Amino acid sequence: MDEAVADALCKTRPAQTMGIADLGCSSGPNTLMVVSEIITKIYDTCSHMGIASPELRVSLNDLPGNDFNAIFVSLPEFYRNLEKETGVGPDGCFISAVAGSFYGRLFPRRSLHLVYSSSSLHWLSSADTMRKQVPPDLCTKAGKHLNKGKIYISKTSPPSVVKAYLSQFQKDFFAFLRSRAAEMVAGGRMLLSFMGRSSPDAAAEVGTHQWELLSQALMSMASEGLIQEEKIDSFNAPYYAPSAEEVANIVEEEGSFIVNHLQGFEIDWDGGPTGNDHGHDHDNNVVNGSENLSRGGQVAKTIRAVVETLVESHFGRDMMDELFRRYAELVDHYFSKTRPKHINLVLSVSRNTIN
Amino acid sequence: MDEAVADALCKTRPAQTMGIADLGCSSGPNTLMVVSEIITKIYDTCSHMGIASPELRVSLNDLPGNDFNAIFVSLPEFYRNLEKETGVGPDGCFISAVAGSFYGRLFPRRSLHLVYSSSSLHWLSSADTMRKQVPPDLCTKAGKHLNKGKIYISKTSPPSVVKAYLSQFQKDFFAFLRSRAAEMVAGGRMLLSFMGRSSPDAAAEVGTHQWELLSQALMSMASEGLIQEEKIDSFNAPYYAPSAEEVANIVEEEGSFIVNHLQGFEIDWDGGPTGNDHGHDHDNNVVNGSENLSRGGQVAKTIRAVVETLVESHFGRDMMDELFRRYAELVDHYFSKTRPKHINLVLSVSRNTIN
């Protein structure tokens, strides 16, 4: 981040205003935390370099359904704190919101110097509209569902399913890069972090098992007649966890960016990087304020917060409590056998100056 | 509007992106209508001039409490219609939202070519926060309220009240112009429309009587013990309807803008310019869909939509139905004696090139 900020600053000076975008900003308490960190780094760097800070244009982006009102209401306090901490007044930093899919154009040509996106690019473009939740190739023209009994790539999924998912990710990530290429200045920097996988095999357990357990929870409800099996067959999560190689290939193919850094980091399912055991007592329970949830319960709660809108729109609101109760049990059982991990991919690129 | 668009376009060509801002955009069905009209005019003008349209950066501004989510949700349809009507795709027009008070800076330096504001600048800066609803000079240091029994300038208000209101408006409008001066390019155009008055006397009946009747409705409730009179004494609407001369003087004093046009237009209280009697039947009732409200009822409904949040935060939610019922009666009675009118001031200025 430090290097990217310094580099982006160098590209800024002639224009004297610097464009920064957070793509997929969401609306939780973390939204403005990242922005705040970036702004502070910029002011520190300018101070170190002995130059005046440029005026900052900060754009917060997410889909039109995001709760931007919640962000806006917290802005006056954010500006007050920013002024207290950095001395930057209301004429130094201009925050705006842009609603739309980052798989298309969002900003004017050559207007951005620093682009940031966290935990968003593993969602496929089909997640943008609730109407079509699946990569389109997962259903034949005759209406036959290819990924029976599953909601994501699984060990038992036919190769056509893996291919359809990868193909959709390639299309989407290419469109993302092409849009940003138009919007960024030459030499502008982009930092992306999203879910990925360490195995070359997209159907390997690491990277798929969280969805696998949710499929199992759904199927157990289907076996008791609570959910129609056809409903499960026709649902496929608009999500893809790519390998670093797949990502690098698309960046190379698109051609507008140079990779500075690309790496995967292991993260425990229940949060924090591997090796960090703080927050767990000896009985495998997460100690989390007044709640005393099992690790499975905690994971289920987190996952529910992320996927509920999507899952609910397909299976119905009434199913949610029971679904995530069963899911928590399955996760608890899984934790008793192994210590599951996600892979978080971090990609840093520069907009090249050739085309 | 046509002239302002053509003029602003001339200032745009070298930069090839054009900054447009709607200040006080609100969130009703009209919000994107004005933007749509502006965009269409720009594309028509470019087509007439035989030049390529610039990329448009459109900023929608209002206070942080505005319902921006409602605007964002309607954007996808807006873009679809825009493309159908003008051929402008998603890479031609970029809409963003900026939450904050237009009495301070909102945008980077020299970034705006065309600024527009409708029905907003009659609200004083003290309306920005609900905590202090009055121009501060209306209460003495000893805590004595100067505008007893009234909630706006009235015939019986002491001269100090009129002076306090004017002084607050002067400060606010000056700050508005100074902020826009920093944000606009040389030659950029600004179109402002807001409530004003035709009389040089700020206490004249035209321009104050709508608030006068609301004071009367409140006082009638106070006389029955429903509201404490002290509550009315301590409330003063954060609103001011200036004369054209007062506005011109502030523009001249601030010094960054040249007045192209400044004019007041009469508008009937119950909507539409004077002389337009459509929509009224012979019994003085407004024919309005399924509702059959009296003219007073219709005016009360409109005014309630505008001022309720403000009035409610001071007098309490429980009072609102009764207050606006009494208000409707008073307006009906007033209509039986006269045909009341607002003055809508329209001001068109250019950012000068001197400083």
Short key terms for the protein model shown above:
homodimer, 355 residues, alpha/beta, 7-stranded mixed sheet, 7 strands, 40% helix, methyltransferase activity (chains A, B), methyltransferase (chains A, B), MeTrfase_capping (chains A, B), metal ion binding (chains A, B)
Would you mind describing this structure in some detail?
The structure is a homodimer of 355-residue chains. Chain A is of the alpha/beta class and 355 residues long. Chain A contains nine helices and seven strands; from the N terminus they run H-E-H-E-H-E-E-H-E-H-H-H-E-H-H-E. In chain A, strands 3-2-1-4-5-7-6 form a seven-stranded mixed β-sheet, with helices on both faces. In chain A, helix 2 packs parallel to helix 3, helix 5 crosses helix 9 and helix 8 runs antiparallel to helix 9 (320-337).
Structure summary:
The structure is a homodimer of 355-residue chains. Chain A is of the alpha/beta class and 355 residues long. Chain A contains 9 helices and 7 strands; from the N terminus they run H-E-H-E-H-E-E-H-E-H-H-H-E-H-H-E.
List the topology elements:
Two copies of one chain form a homodimer.
Chain A: H1 2-10, E1 17-23, H2 31-49, E2 55-62, H3 68-86, E3 93-99, E4 112-118, H4 159-183, E5 184-196, H5 209-223, H6 229-233, H7 244-254, E6 257-268, H8 295-315, H9 320-337, E7 341-351
Parallel strand pairs in A: 1-2, 1-4, 2-3, 4-5
Antiparallel strand pairs in A: 5-7, 6-7
Helix pairs in contact in A: 1-2, 2-3, 4-7, 5-9, 8-9
